[in-house]
Amino acid sequence: MKGHYLYGASAIAVAAGLMVAGAAQAQETKANTVDEVVVTGSFIQGTPKDTAIPVAVLNQEDLEKRGSPSILDIIKTLPISGPVLGDSNQFSTNSQGRNGGGTINIRGLGAQRTLVLLNGKRFAGYQADTNLLPESAIGRVEVLKDGAAATYGSDAIGGVANFITRKNFSGIEVGGDYRYVPGSDGGDYNANILYGWVGDNSNLMISAAYKHRGQLANVERDWVTAPYTTNPSGWSVLGQPGAYTIRSGANGGGSTIGFAVDANCTAVGGFAGFSGATPACYFSYIPFDNIVEEQDQYQLYSEFNADVGDSSKFHVEALYTQTSQPDYRFSPGYPPTSGPNGPGSVNVYSVAASNPGFNTFLTQTGNGALIGTAQSALATLWRPLGAGGNPTTGGRGGQSGSRKYEEIRIAADLSGDTGFYDIGYQLGATYIRELQDQQTTDILIDRLQRSLNGLGGPGCTGSTPGANGCQYFNPFSNAYAGNPALGLTNPGFVSTNANSKSLVAWLFDRQKFRAQQDTFVFDAVLNGQLPVLALPGGDIGWAAGAQYRKVTYLQQIDSPFYNADITPCPVEGTSTCAFRTGPYIFLGQNKNLRLEQSVYAVFGELNLPITDSLNAQLALRFEDYGGQTGSTTNPQARVKWQALEWLALRGSYGTSFRGPTSANVAPTGTTGLSGISAAGNNFKSVDFFGNPGIGPETATTYSVGAIFQTDALTATLDYWSYDLQDQITTVPANVVATAVAGVGNGSQTVNCASGVRYLITFNNSNACTQGVTVGNDIARVRSDTTNGPGIKTTGIDADVDYRFDDVFGGEVHIGGNVSYVLNFEQEAFRFAGVTVSGAYDAVGFTNYDRLPGTIPQWRGQFYADYNLDIHNVRWTMNYVDGATDNRGPTTVQTGASTNCNVANATAGTATNCKLITFGLEQDAFISHDLTYRLQLPNDLTLTATVFNLLDTEPSEARIEMSYDPFIGNPLGRTFKVGVRKKF
Hints:
The protein is mainly beta. It is built from eleven helices and 52 strands. The protein is 8% helix and 45% strand. The strands form eleven sheets. The chain has a 22-stranded antiparallel barrel. Strands 1-4-5-2-3 form a five-stranded mixed β-sheet. Strands 32, 33, 36, 37 and 38 form a five-stranded mixed β-sheet that branches. The two termini are 45 Å apart.
């Protein structure tokens, strides 16, 4: 995959914008108006917005009154949305393939089950990255709060979010805003420009925008970096400073003559504790990471509309958008889960006695008498880089990677009247190219061991340790001056023992992953009214059409170490080994890959005005995936009855579906990270694999509701239900690990006879000994794609707006919208004939170790808006309910112990054991926003907003960053000012 093949299409998007600009300038300027005749949820021309379709609309005016929140902020505060990504979220397994990306998750069913549209057309091949939407060009957002696969096809199980661009804009508009975030590096800001031209028979719009988010470090929020004995989640027993077994022979051979935890543990921010009866220095990687990564976004969008003849219209739109995180930060060094001889973390690396830091280590730990006798040390509980940071990356010393996502999208359609029986037509084509470029660093196994023996460095020649350009890597704490993230000084630092930057840089390989996904969609739709049959309420509207969708996915692995076909073993150039772990101490590998998927669909729709007060809509769609996946047919019916002038009742029933993605059926896999509850929440490698035999998932949905409307009041109340079967999911790593090793601080023994033990790779060359192997011995977990357990969820939505006229000469609106989840029942999870988790109701629980993630009981948004002439003031309250940590309490050791577990700690019989209830009950998160908008003459608008007016902190949560990003907001009180000027 060459660079011009990956990136050349950006020229297409730019060229499309220039072509339509040239065509538009050839015509006389004159304002015209094009009515919106189709709403989200229907292909029938002329469908009114007050039918049975449950669509929530946010227009540009609404958003401006709220301080023009970003698309991410809009989605986060939607009451109907479940957990979504958008900030760093790097410790969420769901985000690790898309750090810096955004999602929308209607009903909490998963972002992959919400279809995102731009102007009624697919925005992405599969799950959309909402951070790539052309924010400055968006005029309104329509959210269909109902399954809609019968209309739109796959991915619309939870609902549809349709982002619609501004229409018929004429002139030039420039705007920008700045958001002050305490502790952020420069804050957040954006600038945008919009150009529009409207002629007699055509119109053109072009928008360009730049957005920047400043880096917000974890150490800028003191509640993030919790002590080990308060929240152990962000700490690892594989620490730096480490713990070592001192041996009498070379290369870890001979007999054990001592054991020591390296000196200076507490001085550099570690916790001097125990793992069972073994002393250890626990290390926290949290100070080296960020709440928000530095991020830049570039967006260029254009669209052109023109009349063609007397009855047809042509539309074309082009988009280029990019999100990049050039300095993505994470732990200074990962812990080892593989060594020279296979999987393992404990005693898999040895340090030679000739290492410059070795004798200093012995002296500082009180083992100076062993100098000359000790010939090596085994790294027992250890990682190569930790508290001392990574000296090659600057800043606070975390590793530095990068993420870049791009999208090129061109959509065009021709619509009009066929000339036969008033039948309309629409022919459309959409091309989408999605690009990823992700780079992550990790240490190479062979280079690390050679460096510990004095044969490291980029200029090493020969076989004499420490000579001919060969260098030693000093793994001990005497090699670094202190903890750069916490600003701590190391009293045991010996400058002559420090590692050179060139050596540390040489230890690492930069994994380079590029992916390209091309999607082509062709739609053909006919619509009209039946000429020979009418109902008492009017003519019957109909639509029928077909769609062809093809997705091609390419991934290229640019690093030979990262490519499992080139370097399958720990040693470069070796292809035969007992355990094909690859060459990295922690991360896994990938392969070059090409996948294709073609989908064919036909669909139909009827709008039945049964009477003046009773309307029904029927839809049916057939979609064929071919292969083992097969086909699916999905009907849907919606009914609305205008019972009284001020009261309407509505309801819907239908089935929806989602087919597997090309990645779901791929025979290869990718590697992510997850905190494993069975291993004391220490992070372990998780290998995700596809499944060629995966089938589609299906859902039955229904809703009933009421619409209340008077001169001053508009309100809706809806009950909704989803019954999802055969959900496409991976077997969660925590579910597998818990099924084998239970939940604990990692010292509990595992069940080697478990039916899913084969999905876990243990230390000690993957040996599992009953009664000996413990949770901390887990090195890797395999997470296979499968058709998993069913989900049944129901709830109630309520929206209300009441208007007061002539209040001190102005107009007041008060209202709110609420989504209350009655239940979210997850069936028992069976995999490979084994029940890996029982059934449960996820509502009101955090579900950190199981599907589907945090599900608060209810979410709401309430507002009061006052408008007087050029002034507008709006108060908004956002409410997200709290949740209970279903895992229950955990324990930490305060000294040596062999019986530290929850049961014994609760009973008071545990030795040197503390019960941790931190974050067990999370409080609701309530924030207040206040916005003032001033509309001055000459089309100048100023806005000022205070977000989180009361500076509310998120509630405690027993996960890595001590708060739940799906409930609380970590930014605190922030201030935003904006300006918009139209010429």
